[in-house]
Amino acid sequence: xKIGVLGAGVSGLSIxxxxxxxxxxxLLERAPVHGGIARTRNAEGIAYHVTGGHCFNTKYNDVLxxxxxxxxxxxxxxxxxxxxxxxxxxxxxxxxxxxxxxxxSEFDNDLAIAITRDFLAADDDHHYENLEDWFRxxxxxxxxxQYFIPYNTKIWNRKPADMSPGWVEGKLPIPDKYSFFKGLIxxxxxxxxxxxxxxxxxxxxxTFIDNLARxxxxxxxxxxxxIVKKPNGKWVINDEKEYxxxxxxxxxxxxxxxxxxxxxxxxxxxxxxxxxxxxxxxxETKGTRNTWTYIPESDxxxxxxxxxxxxxxxxxxxxxTEVVGEKTYDEMLENGRKDPFxxxxxxxxxxxxxxxxxxxHYKSATEAIKNHLKHIGIYTLGRFGEWQYxxxxxxxxxxxxxxxxxxxxxxxxx
Length: 414
Fold this sequence. Notes:
Blueprint: E1 2-6, H1 10-19, E2 24-28, E3 40-43, E4 46-49, H2 61-71, E5 77-81, E6 84-88, E7 91-94, H3 101-105, H4 109-121, H5 131-139, H6 141-156, H7 177-185, E8 196-200, H8 206-213, E9 217-219, E10 227-229, E11 235-237, E12 241-243, E13 245-248, H9 255-258, H10 264-272, E14 275-276, E15 278-285, E16 292-294, E17 304-306, E18 318-324, H11 329-336, E19 342-350, E20 355-356, H12 362-376, E21 378-380, H13 382-385, H14 392-413
Parallel strand pairs: 1-2, 1-13, 2-9, 6-16, 13-21
Antiparallel strand pairs: 3-4, 5-8, 6-7, 10-11, 11-12, 14-20, 15-18, 15-19, 16-17, 17-18
Helix pairs in contact: 1-14, 5-6, 10-12
């Protein structure tokens, strides 16, 4: 079976590797090179992520087996302990903030008492009107107002009251009242899957990505402009490439407009989908042990530092500052000069699609589009193809599961 995969990011490469064992698979990629948003860029010998900070770990055994046994052996990675902090009122707190109440008490007893009182009194009925409501019911009003609401306003570029909480499962450590109380009297910490993570020994994520792409047929610099389904069921791309089966990792807000005969109501739903770009700047910095720093405060438009130099072995003093939306080089430089930790700018980048937005249209629009694509027989995959807030490991997991489903479906039909 001839299979076409639109997009050669982590999701496209992963399913290409899975299905390429039994089928003729070709990937079409508009960029000059594979890898998508997980690919690094080299500046002054530092390989850094221009869109987010992409590391690897997972709770899925099949993903671990795929990566370590088929792509890049475990011996070719080093393991890093996640050390994330939060800058609040000029103080550095350990992440997650709900376990840092003892630290907060050292500079603001009243705030620590209010956080404790509200967290223990929070009434979580598991019915949430929006993301702000979710924060208040999970963490109490004080933590919501001091950290979660302002920080999430920055990272989503909109008010949490106008967003769905659908993305948060598995993304945030959520303590119950017992573990919160243990955090007050002990050194209780979160047990998130990414509390530790792997990074290639080359100090460049492209080592993994290039191994993932090895042996695949990838056509780069290829812009998909039209998708047509012929009466015989085959798919034709740009009137020249023909496939028996089509898998798309293209953004869900763009794909319907490329498909011949898409109903107007589906095109309208696609226009409702929103996403954010991010602007990043790589800096030479002072030393830190941290891997991430989160910044909820409004006087600094950066929402986080990704201390990419601490992903390396040995570590180096380099960090990425990130802001949601488009900022100029001069704006990034001026904002960075407020923090003496940031010594010298090294590189600058503005992304395309970076993060999907979970607003009031998200659920109805994605359901309508996905149902239509399923009806006409196009498989959609990945962060933008499924319009989800997926980490790299979940993209790989989704690819493994889809490949298994396709193999089962076509073995039965055969």
